[in-house]
Amino acid sequence: MQIIISILNFFQDQVLGMKWLNAVIGSGLSAVGLDLESKVGASIQFFIYDTIKITVLLCVLIYLISYIQSYFPPERSKRILGRFHGVGANIAAALLGTVTPFCSCSSIPLFIGFTSAGLPLGVTFSFLISSPMVDLGSLVLLMSIFGSKIAAVYVLVGLVIAVAGGTIIEKLHMEKHVEQYIKTAGSVDIEAPDLTKRERLKFALEQVSATFKKVFPYILVGVGIGAFIHNWIPQTWIETALGSSNPFSVILATLVGVPMYADIFGTIPVAEALFAKGAQLGAILSFMMAVTTLSLPSLIMLRKAVKPKLLALFIGICAGGIIIVGYLFNIFHYFLV
């Protein structure tokens, strides 16, 4: 058992966490005369290390996930979801969301397509919630910072929010609050051609290139904010705002996250810095969920497809679920860290 634990720790620290890379960068910066104990030196080390680490993980994950995704084009996904009914359909949609686009704005066109195709509204909303919040990339990246237990629980509760949210919307019969053009758009059921292995590999490479170009600016911004928080903001400030002394830290983190726009890759370095400064785990994860699921640009896009009442219900379900999950993580974090 001890051998297995040692292997898992090595995988988390050296493969996912790439602590060896941090040491190499630190040695290189010291060799050119940079004081790593200073705020400037520590910030530069943090920025270079996190940018390289997240970029490497990003490219590998996108490649693997895109290869898997090549087996689930929209037409096939629609047929798969159409085979399920009731809560089972919501679970299937939430699970499908784990292998689809990395940000909420990318998920909305698929949500519109599924809704136009006649899939139950609650099912399509389970997909919409799950897709940006709990993709496979989030699992691996969270493991690299918080460990496997926290990452697994984060994904599990994200799926629960997606299934519960979609089920509630389904039970409330909100179909009349979908914009009319979505209902009448219909769907052209085109059979997706079978791809060869080489074509799938090419598709995965193209997805890596396209997603990297779109996401990389947010990574730089996220790492820059993380470096600033990590080395320039006093720990007492973070603990006061997001620590255990503030009973409203989860609500504050959720409200701060909503206006922002990023995906899981952009929020990870911010979360890493907040965790190092003493922020509560629940507040950090609530911030991440709010940014990835309820970003203002995605809500603006979603408003084009649904009416205000349904949009407000979606926001309320997601925000309420995120806040509840945040407080639960704060209560039980001692069992996870």
List keywords for this structure.
17 helices; 337 residues; DUF318; Permease; UPF0718_permease; transmembrane helix; cell membrane; mainly alpha
* Extended strand count: 0
Approximately how much beta-strand content do the residues carry?
under 5%
Number of domains: 1
Order of helices and strands: HHHHHHHHHHHHHHHHH
Structural class: mainly alpha
Mind describing the biggest β-sheet?
Answer: none
The percent range for helix content is: over 70%
Mean pLDDT: 83
Number of helices: 17
Radius of gyration: 21 Å
What separation lies between the terminal Cα atoms?
19 Å
Low-confidence stretches: none
Outline type: globular
Provide a descriptive summary of the structure in words.
The chain is an all-alpha fold. The chain contains 17 helices and no strands. Helix 9 packs antiparallel against helix 17 (308-332) and helix 14 runs antiparallel to helix 15. The longest helix is centred in the middle third of the chain and has 36 residues, at 197-232. The mean pLDDT is 83.
